[in-house]
Design goal:
By secondary structure, this protein is an alpha+beta fold. The chain has helices at about 15-25, 35-40, 40-45, 70-75, 80-95, and strands at about 1-10, 60-70, 95-110, 125-130.
Length: about 140
């Protein structure tokens, strides 16, 4: 759900920035205006994010380094508010990821609560949501 000061993080292996971006982009076609499921991004469908608690694509980062790493710090390097976001996530979940990934997706001012029933096929792995406390971030 939208929540000021929070950042939600997913990681995956998308290979390119364009592929990672396509994963979070919503469908604004005429057909999608009449069908909620067509409107939803792949991320929204996979993680049960409904239309009422959707995120704003303008407040998202997609990072793809083209090389895999297990280091969270390395993977999210270059994201908006990098120092504060990295510190918050490393403090919460540690620096070592469960596997090697080449891409990160960060949704700002969004607190995914991980309570929806989730399917078994995912292109991205949810790492967590953290409150970012930094004057530059606005909290």
């Amino acid at each position: 759900m939208e929540r000021s000061g929070y950042v939600s993080l997913w990681v995956g292996n998308f290979g390119t920035f364009e592929n990672a971006l396509a994963y979070i982009e919503k469908n604004y076609s005429d057909e999608a205006q009449e069908d909620d499921e067509l409107y939803k991004s792949e991320l929204m469908r996979e993680y049960g994010i409904d239309i009422d608690s959707e995120y704003d694509e303008d407040f998202a980062d997609c990072i793809c380094h083209g090389r895999k790493t297990k280091s969270l710090t390395e993977l999210i390097n270059g994201c908006s508010y990098c120092k504060a976001v990295t510190w918050a996530f490393v403090s919460d979940v540690g620096d070592e990821l469960p596997d090697s990934f080449d891409s990160a997706i960060l949704l700002y001012d969004y607190n995914y609560d991980n309570s929806a029933e989730i399917g078994t096929c995912h292109r991205a792995v949810f790492i967590g949501s953290v409150k970012v406390s930094d004057p530059k971030y606005g909290s």
